[in-house]
Amino acid sequence: xxxxxxxxxxxxxxxxxxxxxxxxxxxxxxxxxxxxxxxxxxxxxxxxxxxxxxxxxxxxxxxx
Length: 64
Known about the structure:
By secondary structure, this protein is mostly helical. It has helices spanning 3-13, 19-52, 55-61. The chain has one domain (17-61).
C-alpha cells in the first residue's frame, strides 16, 4: 500500500466533524511547500546572477 493509499484509507475513518480541519491542514502544507520553493528560488538568484549577467548568456538567449 502506498503512502497516498494509506492516507486515503485513514481519511475514510475521520469523522465529518473534523474534515474542515483536515482540509485546512492540507492547505497549510501546500502553502508551506509553495513558500519553500519560492524561498529556494530567491536564495538561488544571487548565486546564479553572476552567470545570468554574462555576455555569453545574452548571446545565447537573443534569438528567443
